[in-house]
Amino acid sequence: MALKFLGIWPNTPDDGSPTRWLDDTTGDLIIQSWRADEETIRQAQEVGSVPGHSTDVPAHETVIRLPAGMLQFIPRPDSEDNGDNSGT
């Protein structure tokens, strides 16, 4: 696994900031972000996904809230480089 840094929340403090990486081997996104609050999780469970699929969040998963400002760091197939943001 070779991770590539994609971006961090602009003007970030020294700790606890949403950050994105790309696994160059699998293409997976690695995301550090804020855990969704109980109200957000409840609303997601009410909306659901596909019929018959459980809305419970398994112990090995979590629901995160991805800030809209971080969408710029999600790789797109038509883009080779999405820039680099050191948080400044």
Explain the layout of strands and helices.
Layout: E1 3-8, E2 19-23, E3 29-32, E4 34-35, H1 38-47, E5 64-65
Antiparallel strand pairs: 1-2, 2-3, 4-5
Order of helices and strands: EEEEHE
Q: What is the overall pLDDT average?
A: 83
Largest sheet: 3 strands, antiparallel
- Strand fraction: 15-25%
Between the first and last Cα atoms, what is the distance in angstroms?
27 Å
| Low-pLDDT windows of residues | none
Q: What's the oligomerization state?
A: single chain
Which descriptor suits the 3D outline?
Answer: globular
Number of helices: 1
**Number of strand elements:** 5
Tell me the Rg in angstroms.
15 Å
Question: In terms of structural class, how would the helical and strand content be classed?
Answer: alpha+beta
Strand order of the largest sheet: 1-2-3
Work out the helicity level. Answer: 10-25%
